[in-house]
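QUALITY CONTROL LOG
STEP: pairwise intake check
CHECKER ROLE: data steward
CRITERIA: each record must contain a sequence immediately followed by its structure tokens, with no blank fields

ENTRY 1 OF 2
RESULT FIELD BELOW
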Amino acid sequence: MDQISLTANGLRFRCQLDGPEGAPWLVFSNSLLTDLSLWDAQVEALSGRFRILRYDQRGHGSTEVPEGPANFDQLASDAEALMAQVGAERATFIGVSMGAATGLLLASRAPGRVAALIASDGQVGTAPGGAEAWQERIDTVEKEGMEAIVEPTLRRWFSPSSLDAGNRAIPRVRGMISGTPQGGFVACARALQSYDLRAVLPQLAQPVLLVAGATDGVMPQTMRRMAEEIPKARFVEIPDAGHLPCIEQPVAFNEAIFGFLVEQAGG
């Protein structure tokens, strides 16, 4: 396990490398309000077979906060630049939420670099009414600070059963949300507030696995529709999981992605 700092597009990024050199590459990309530790359970399960790059998206974790709003052109460019620097010439890209949209755009723009894509709980554009909802959250944070959105976000993200039972991931995610730099949240919330990647879906030539938590609102239906528009896509739903199945139900999530990864790695 090697934590490194790399510069891409004028920002310093915290990155982590795991797994043996020479193994097939995986690249993990986090959601809004989380950091690279979101993927600990996946790295633990997969680092014996794969070379893994994960990184804190701009303005998140220990990566520098950008000046001004972010957009998905920048987020995809960040990922591609980091991959190039560590020698990940061709990789399976795995992203959740904001990271999923990052992966969709990167896969369409750099098909030679992205061999396959796993997109979890992400969509291809801002939902109707989404711009207003994001603006409300931005206003709340700018007036009251990050703590004001911690508990509402947890209630949106986790399944009712996990909230009732006190899933052990909840304190970890709470810490990630409260620890996100305010400027980083606002910058990336602006990217989510107005984007449209619908034209990307039919262009994707790579194998794609779409994953959604069963209780993540309309996300399962949304991602099923996405799978119908991507030539080589299939969809898996994770029971008893909300917006971050990779950390809420890591065993089920790992089972869902493992067969796909082994298939893409040639067995």
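ENTRY 2 OF 2
RESULT FIELD BELOW
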Amino acid sequence: ERVDITVYEVQPDLSLKELYRASGGALGGNQVDEAFKQMLIKMFGAPVIAEFARSHPGDYVDIYREFENKKRDINDKRVRVIFKIPISLREMFEEETGYHVKEKIKDTEFSEKITFVSDKCKITTEVMMSFFEVALDQIVDHVTELLKKPEISGTKNILMVGGFSESPILQNMIKKSFPDMTVIIPPEPGLAVLKGAVLFGHKPVTISSRIAK
């Protein structure tokens, strides 16, 4: 999952002139996923997580699918976030180590912040928000540096599209970090790029002719 930032200028005929090519790269959701993975490793241990991914690939993918859904829905107004952790992972951990996962958590910084009930994992919003810190800081720093470039001076609007733009945390951070900018977020920003691709597929000449070179 990449974060690509491109700067366009709308021309009088409503065509677009590219002022700055796509930049950013591996900023975004992948870093949030990695922070979540590191939490799992601290709770269950790297050997258990590696073996679980090998022997239970379906359940392993389900963990990240569940996290992805929560990642795009989390906000700072919740007290706790609840998502599923396959019982098979807990059972493997207990068989391999002889300890209950609750005992392991007590020895980490997540003590009192993460609890397990059956296949439900409850984590505080503080922990969930911490997964976003590195990604958000890098995105804000990158946009800040871009806005200093003379070739894109006068930029007034930020348009957010793509899957990571669905995150209320990212949306709020961009609005807070750039209060003088108009931040535009279309409904279902994750589908905006796909819809544009479909439109381009149906009328490539019409749309491409509006892109100024």
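INTAKE CHECK: passed for both entries
DESCRIPTIVE NOTE, ENTRY 2: The CA atoms of residues 52 and 89 lie 7 Å apart.
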